[in-house]
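[worker-b] picked up task from shared queue
[worker-b] task type: protein-ligand structure
[worker-b] ligand name resolved to flavin-adenine dinucleotide; SMILES cross-checked against name lookup, match
[worker-b] sequence length check passed
[worker-b] input payload:
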Amino acid sequence: MYDFLIVGSGLYGAVLAYEATKRGKSILVIEKRNHIGGNIYCENVNGINVHKYGAHIFHTNNKNVWDYIGQFAKFNRYTNSPIANYNGEVYNLPFNMNTFHQMWGVITPQEAMNIIEKQKADYKTENPSNLEQQAINLVGVDIYEKLVKGYTEKQWGRKCDELPPFIIKRLPVRFTYDNNYFNDMYQGIPIGGYTKIIEKLLEGIEVRLETDFLSDRENYESMAEKVIYTGAIDAYYDYCYGKLEYRTVYFETQELPVENYQGNAVVNYTDSETPYTRIIEHKHFEYGTEPTTVISKEYPKEWQEGDEPYYPVNNEKNQELYSKYADLAAKNDKVLFGGRLGEYKYYDMDKVIESALNTVSVIFK
Ligand SMILES: Cc1cc2nc3c(=O)[nH]c(=O)nc-3n(C[C@H](O)[C@H](O)[C@H](O)COP(=O)(O)OP(=O)(O)OC[C@H]3O[C@@H](n4cnc5c(N)ncnc54)[C@H](O)[C@@H]3O)c2cc1C
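[worker-b] inference finished, payload out:
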């Protein structure tokens, strides 16, 4: 008998396991994949830490979270500065003075503002009824055509004039020469990859891999006083109210015999013809100098059963469904649901840590 059974060895489960162990509790972690770490898992390929489930950049404004994660890894100074490739034209992202200089040759913020304001006025739609009109209202036609349209259409698998306007509430435009994608105070990549963080969190804790809780749930539940479940909440309840929806991405990963393929970790392909949305070159997250490189092309894909459930689709229909499952969960004294699948919530890593530490303070108050 264990004090806690933790289902899932992702960041949420691992923080819970670490904190409970620190408080003298006995823990069993079960994980259905053949490795620990959930979606932050990095696979080492000839010295390069490949972000197997998509590029992960740690960024936060929360000093407590930054200090907390800093106990388990040293972070480098990586700053996310993606590049956009539109039919061979290269632009800095996020939209800033470098982008505007590349697009129009302007030098001063006032010149850039004048162009954007003129385009917004020329093409303004009073009550935008689709994403295209909304985006043009926000940034004008040039930025929309070259940097928003193709990328968004590939991401959603639909034309921008068929997508609802509310998907894009804001398109941040910066009138400084600043390519730093995030505004957060702290950001970086853990030197040596994310898996090392999970290894440290789970050090000395019993972990059983390739073990699916749902295949023998009664047995596993009987093994512990309490269960922390970080899998999909609808799956736990046998989809009794129906299935929650996700968006997913298919990654095509290749090792190439060149030292430097694209000169940047993240390059977005913003035209409509290129079938993928981004290419990630993993070594640049850690300033790698290996003789070869590994790249991943990202193809957005409609989620179907069996695909990785990456991004919860938090629209009205799914939120309503989720709240039914959440009501069942609230009545369940034995099982606590947490993390991105357990709470059906898009959580960045810092928010997952915050949420896991909040749960710890509730359990051990
Ligand atoms: C493509 C992508 C890119 C991202 N990029 C960033 C980024 O740049 N920066 C950032 O801060 N965040 C990013 N995130 C978010 C980040 O991945 C999450 O915050 C974090 O991984 C969530 O941790 P978790 O433990 O809640 O979930 P997960 O990592 O999903 O862990 C859940 C674990 O539970 C296991 N499990 C599920 N069901 C069962 C079962 N029945 N039995 C046993 N085990 C089970 C799963 O196999 C998995 O290992 C990104 C997410 C995605 C999908």
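[worker-b] attaching auto-annotations
[worker-b] The two ends are 23 Å apart (CA to CA).
[worker-b] releasing lock
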